[in-house]
Amino acid sequence: MQSGIFVVLEGGEGVGKSTNMAFMQDYLRQHQIDFVHSREPGGTELAEQIRALLLVNRDEKVADMTELLLMFAARAQHLANKIRPTLAQGKWLLCDRFTDATFAYQGGGRGFDQALIKQLETMVQAELRPHCTIILDAPVEVGFARARARASLDRMESEDLAFHQRVRQTYLTRAAEMPDKYAVINADQPLSQVQDDIQRVLDGLIQQSQQSK
């Protein structure tokens, strides 16, 4: 059974993920590549319900462990009912955030032991990992200014600057540790340049996919 290509777009708040995910989808359509778009937390009906639980602002404090386990519960559902079936059909899967976001937000931001997150990653995903993770990176102050200008902030976006600084640093640390699996793109540059950089990454993945057939 042919295996598809799994590409994840990551980054902190206000780095342009939505705009650039739309660009990625258009680019694959231009190349007549069959793909499915998804997001985390979410991606299936049940996982989207868990997403709502996670992100809504509420009076009751959400325990950090509750947040972490809900993230992986949504991910398990997403993997079983969307990600694995899509890849098994030989399609590309473009995902807005995946497990790197858990390492960044719950690990870096909340301070959870990375080893615990790795244990849950292995339990839920087994050997499945993205072929490539594109990280859109910008100074936290820049991202926050963009995020606040576009809409009200959800529970995660509302955390303080120090939280989001830790998130950003965790993304960059993971990319530095595994450079063959990550592409860090400067999101604090003109959009046309950001998308040129993304296009180069996609071109490499398209070539890799064609060579493996």
Topology:
Elements: E1 6-11, H1 17-30, E2 35-39, H2 45-55, H3 64-88, E3 92-96, H4 99-109, H5 114-125, E4 132-137, H6 140-150, H7 161-177, E5 182-186, H8 191-211
Parallel strand pairs: 1-3, 1-4, 2-3, 4-5
Helix pairs in contact: 1-8, 2-3, 3-5, 4-7
Task: Provide a descriptive summary of the structure in words.
- The protein is an alpha/beta fold and 213 residues long.
- Helix content is 57%, strand content 13%.
- It has helices at residues 17-30, 45-55, 64-88, 99-109, 114-125, 140-150, 161-177, 191-211; strands at 6-11, 35-39, 92-96, 132-137, 182-186.
- The longest helix is centred in the middle third of the chain and has 25 residues, at 64-88.
- The mean pLDDT is 93.
Beta strand %? 5-15%
Helical amount: 55-70%
Which outline best applies?
globular
Cα(first) to Cα(last) distance is 12 Å
Could you give the count of β-strands?
5
Taking all residues together, what is the mean pLDDT? 93
The side-by-side strand order for the widest beta sheet comes to 2-3-1-4-5
Q: Biggest β-sheet: count, sense, barrel?
A: 5 strands, parallel
**Helix tally?**
8
Protein structure class:
alpha/beta
Low-confidence stretches: none
Order of helices and strands: EHEHHEHHEHHEH
**Rg over CA atoms:** 17 Å
